[in-house]
Amino acid sequence: MPGPTPDSSRDVRPTLEAVAALAGVSRATASRVVNGGAGVRKPLVEQVRKAVDELGYVPNHAARTLVTRRNGAVAVIIDEPEFRIFSDPFFSQQIRGISRELSVYDAQLVLLLVEGSGDFDRVARYLAGGHVDGALAFSLHMDDELPSIIRRFRVPTVYGGRPGRPGAASEPALPYVDCDNRGGAAEAVRHLVSLGRRRIAHIAGPRDQTSALDRIDGYRDVLPEGDPALLAEGDFTVEGGARAMTQLLERHPDLDAVFAANDLMASGALRVLRERGRRVPKEVALVGFDDMVSIAEITEPPLTTVRQDVEGMGRLMVRMLMRRLNGEGEGDELESVITPTRLVHRASA
Amino acid sequence: MPGPTPDSSRDVRPTLEAVAALAGVSRATASRVVNGGAGVRKPLVEQVRKAVDELGYVPNHAARTLVTRRNGAVAVIIDEPEFRIFSDPFFSQQIRGISRELSVYDAQLVLLLVEGSGDFDRVARYLAGGHVDGALAFSLHMDDELPSIIRRFRVPTVYGGRPGRPGAASEPALPYVDCDNRGGAAEAVRHLVSLGRRRIAHIAGPRDQTSALDRIDGYRDVLPEGDPALLAEGDFTVEGGARAMTQLLERHPDLDAVFAANDLMASGALRVLRERGRRVPKEVALVGFDDMVSIAEITEPPLTTVRQDVEGMGRLMVRMLMRRLNGEGEGDELESVITPTRLVHRASA
Fold it and tell me: Could you report the per-residue pLDDT of B234-244, keeping only the tens digit for each?
């Protein structure tokens, strides 16, 4: 990325010396005022502030960070391409919780967008630059470099979702917030069993994410002897859910229930079932995961699904990070939190 | 926002001296390597890099910026609450264009989210901290403080949409990218006139945004003698469009066409027309603005609308900013760009 020419005279920023000169005070006094220091008489404070405003003086960033180590900013990093972040309501709900809770702490939310994992070099440079006090990272994949980048630059971080690689035995666990993926999935499948369904399929998420693996485990907890052909893998998108549903109907035309690992895939599955003339829930009962109200309440029929408190989890991540930044326990000692899930009954199952 | 206790020994970052000592080189040599400088023999470069990795050394941010004044990062600031940014496809399209083009320049997109205009103090502090090389700002409102904040901290900036307050006569104009709001609106209304429609209503956007005002002007250009009761104000949301349509039908039950200032409001208007049993386009013809494909192609009937190249405008904003950062003309001299619009014919008019 190009920068301005170094000798560009029009781009020279005013110095603290210029502020002091304009205010008619010593450099030390000007410095104390700029750094919010006490011990300066009020009229002098006002003179200096006026000079700062007049000159458009910008305090030296690093000098301030050395004193307080506070940028008043927290990075949010999501390992998904920008278009998924804006099309999957899961991310907007989580960001909503984070944004609202950061406001409470008067901290600026800095969302670092990437086009793909290849862009993490750039994210690493930004984190290395010391522009943020901490980070919240989510949607990690198994082969994700982010935890090692974060560890290398010693950025206090809380993860959303259990990270896939806990690291070598010598490395401490990473602090995270996650919902009870396994327990919630098991509850969904038990509900389908209780309705008398016998051929219960599962549309799983991508196997490089722990949330998908844990939900498969919950499905298997209830159906340990289930036919492996009743399990198809989607990618947490509407289209992925539709593709998986098509495969499942080809392999098992007699299936009578589907548990999809998120609501987006459930809505894709629902479309395929409707196109094939399968009545939901009469012929095929369907349960999703997430309880994204913007999806689950508008599908026809509305979706029975496993609710997780996505916004609340975002808020919790912020509070954990703030405790860490407050010096209350290192990240290494910060306890991870698993939040409960709850089956929400609607018409689809 | 709380920071770690200053004397927290576990939080001490490794110094350049420690890197030099571990690598067995002088501090000057270590500094040259860290700053990417030439003139250091390759084996020494490798020794220093190894020490940097081992210690997790983070280069002093300000020292680097003083040399190059490049953070490799650009802020994107949108004066809308976070929930609107994630629910209005206009913003995701613009961010998509910006994200892709910034990738070309290997610059990190830093999206600064706010809950409301009250949060601009915090954004100002972040900009003042010198964490970004420049900014892209959009969705400004008339009373927006953002331009004055940006001017004060001398952050090179390109605006998306013509800013509402060009500033005092002594202040130079702000560089912006916008579409031909007025010309596009006039084309939409001329199309409705050409279909023989005589009572053409307009659902306008909020009057504190120039895009809304310019589209009203385009409507008036074609219908200078139109009944003022045929104009209702929405807020660029689906619900706002529905409310405005309800008002218009109460005031003018005989209206035979509607031009809505964006597609979201057009889809809300369409819902109300359907609920009232008005056939579109037979009884009421409807034209939107934006051509958000995710809306205009899925409404029933599909929406005739004024297309603006939102993603392309985002890309253009990045290229203009990069020219500025390259020293090719100051912001004051950078020419603003108005991009053309085009009427896209679908079934609704």
Answer: 999 999 999 99
